[in-house]
Amino acid sequence: MPSKSQEICNGSRPQNGLLRSVGAKDFKSLRPHLDQVEVHSGQTLYHPGDAVESVYFPCGQTVVSLGVAVDDDREIDAVLIGREGAAGGFVSRDRQPSYWRAAVKVGGPMVRLSSRRLEETERQSHPLRQLFARYTDCLLAQICQSTACNAAHSIEQRAAKWIIDLIEHTGTEQVPLTHEQFAALLGVGRSYASRVLQGFKADGILDTARGTVMVRDIALLRRKSCECNMWVKKHFAEVLEKTQ
User: Fold this and answer.
1) SS3 45
2) Where does the HTH crp-type domain start and stop, copy by copy (predicted)?
3) Domain limits at 194?
């Protein structure tokens, strides 16, 4: 589990879109219970079967993946969550067991909140319930789009999509990404993922260093990508803008 570093300072709002969309009265109620933690790449927040007792809000460039096991030794990432959203116990209530593994893809700051505290505050606030209901809809749309993408698009299109997704989440074209992490995003073996990266490298799209992908031609990368990220972003904007 992440180690606690400090509580959110009075009067401040973390760099997280959901928390910044919470109304002033509700944020005042939640603020004393928000803990800021520092997490590192590869860290597991919770495993399949764990009772999820916290909600995690990535801040800044922090990115979390939700991975699903497909056999005894392989896991595929279904979705990436960054500063736009949250992972953890905000969908199911009464601390239901998790279906997936939530792991840190890109380390950095994060805010943690007790699921029980969020539930208690939601009972007193229709706007807060609406905000998290709308975000749940967006997360479901993101997962559905990822499922369709895996079925309909080529490995090259999906590879470009995931790299662009990480760029947009982190705000940098030097993406901290290992070959193992890339393979989990694509649902393929490490050697196959490495060949895809080598193909992009040969096309002048990117370079690789230890644990880092450095994009050189973002325009060409976008041309190789499918449009799944665009559809997800459009849905987020349409659904969540009504909570502003």
Assistant:
1) strand
2) 153-219
3) 154-225
Burial class (CB in 10 A: 0-12, 13-18, 19+), 120: middle
Domain of 97: which CATH number? Answer: 2.60.120.10
Name the amino acid, one letter, at 78.
Answer: A
CA angle 206, 207, 208 (to 5 degrees): 125
On whether both 78 and 10 belong to a single domain, the answer is yes
The model's pLDDT over 195-209, given as tens digits with 9 standing for 90+, comes to: 999 999 999 999 999
Which CATH number is 167's domain given? 1.10.10.10
Q: Round to whole Å and give the CA distance between 127 and 108.
A: 29
DSSP letter, residue 33: G
Largest pairwise CA distance in the chain:
57
Q: How confident is the model at residue 242 (pLDDT cuts 50, 70, 90)?
A: low
